[in-house]
């Protein structure tokens, strides 16, 4: 499991499990439970690059980032760690 420490959002961590470049599981620590569970279910089974493309740059209330954007950053960091 890859653990990413978030920045600038309500969630504090994102736990990601990936196999063969496909997202198997995502768990957000803290944040908006319903929305983040929904995002986790939507990206499950998705190719990492597709998820990055869809989520990167999404903004939450002018913060310059969001939990979906942080997930894209976590996936980029995961790919760079390989």
TrEMBL record:
Its EC number is 1.17.4.1. Pfam families: TSCPD. The keyword Ribonucleoprotein does not apply. InterPro entries: CHP03905 (IPR023806), TSCPD_dom (IPR024434). Keywords: DNA synthesis, Nucleotide-binding. It is an enzyme of class 1 (oxidoreductase). It comes from the Bacteria. GO terms for molecular function: nucleotide binding; ribonucleoside-diphosphate reductase activity, thioredoxin disulfide as acceptor. One of its GO terms (biological process) is DNA biosynthetic process. It catalyses: a 2'-deoxyribonucleoside 5'-diphosphate + [thioredoxin]-disulfide + H2O = a ribonucleoside 5'-diphosphate + [thioredoxin]-dithiol. Residues 4-78 form the TSCPD domain. NCBIfam families: TIGR03905_4_Cys. Belongs to the ribonucleoside diphosphate reductase class-2 family. This is ribonucleoside-diphosphate reductase. It comes from Clostridium celatum DSM 1785.
